[in-house]
Amino acid sequence: MSKTVSIITENFGKYDPSSIDSYLSIGGFSAVKKALAMSSGEIIEMTKKAAVKGRGGAAYDTGRKWAQAASVQGDDKVVICNADEGEPCTFKDRSIISQDPFRLLEGMIIAGYTVGAKNGYIYLREEYRHLKPLLLNAIRESTEKGYLGDNILGSGFSFHIHLYSGAGAYVCGEGSTLIESIEGKSGRPRIKPPFIKECGLFQLPTLVNNVETLAIAATFIQHGVEEYLSHGTPDSPGTKIISLAGNVKNPGAYEIPFGLTLREIIYDIGGGIPDGHELKLFQLGGASGKVGDASILDTPYTYEALAKQGLVVGSGGILVVDDRTRVIDFVKSVQDFFIHESCGKCTPCREGNRQIAKIIDRFVDGNQHQDDLQTAERFANIMKNCAFCGLGETAQSTLLSAINHFPEEFGLEVAASEKH
């Protein structure tokens, strides 16, 4: 475990998450105090220097996002914490909420102060309903102590946080869909423009950030940007909380510095594959992520190195699959997930997923048609380029990357030999 670090997770296990007094005893809310003594511009410059990419999956530059939100004119703005975390094999936000809820509130307060928002909303996935009492208590105690509500710590800045629960829809992890859900509508994405930063929740200028992103903001405000930048690599600075699961001996949420190799993550931190089995594949970034094989295990876990291999950091999920699972069976399980979770709003996603599922089923049964793979690839690329939101755009990432890494399992090598 020596290859893990404790920067974002430094408070885990060090205080009682149900007690603000316990949090204050370890220096809690010092980040808020520092932020309130700074200008919005100074915080934005710190955030840009920290070079934090959004940890929800899209990897949009946080400093740029905050600067854009701050520049939008409006007396009433909103900050939303996206705690939907519906991506399979992703549970790092849950670890933050359950072990350090006050750090999350600090990040939201800092974001609200920076962009000029009066209200914050935590959108909590339905499956995390057991965490609602913890968050509600943290909000209540923070308000009673003057860290939330009107005129926070006598600064003249007022900020209120509200908690909303989703209904268990994966698509609500997308920003505009999440907003529709909070407003009491069906969870389906909005047409853009107008963009969320200008017209979001209740038609107000809105900033949406992931749980981990907000926790990082509180971290580097408290300790300084240089401390955070002392970890990671020049191109991917800092740390990342990963969700390691599947066929590994030590599954769990771990904070790592960027730059460790996939081999170090799976075999050193994860303990390797149990019961003497061999690695078959791994999937990064959840069900919408891509898969890789053992030949690229020495790739550093950075945005740039993974991109060169056609992989993504995404939400930070790392799912390990051993040799007991056929690639096509794994692809089918992912396809079944997207069939279930597609909202059905756009034709490419709704019909594309359905038609590709039929083709995958034929591969599973060994009854595929001669042109099935070519048809599936064509439909997948149409979805990637034409779907209305990120769900449809990335739903076939598993299939396309599996074909690339395991062509023999789709009969491509056989087909090539037959041509000669």
Task: Describe, in plain words, how this protein is organized in 3D.
The chain is built from 18 helices and nine strands. It has 420 residues and is of the alpha/beta class. It folds into three domains: 20-229, Rossmann fold; 239-322, Ubiquitin-like (UB roll); 327-419, Up-down Bundle (de novo design (two linked rop proteins)), CATH 1.20.1440.230. The strands form two sheets. It has a five-stranded mixed beta sheet with strand order 6-5-9-7-8. Strands 3-2-1-4 form a four-stranded parallel beta sheet, with helices on both faces. The model is unreliable at 414-420 (pLDDT under 50).
What are the salient characteristics of this protein?
420 residues; alpha/beta; Rossmann fold; Ubiquitin-like (UB roll); de novo design (two linked rop proteins); 3 domains; five-stranded mixed sheet; four-stranded parallel sheet; 9 strands; disordered C terminus
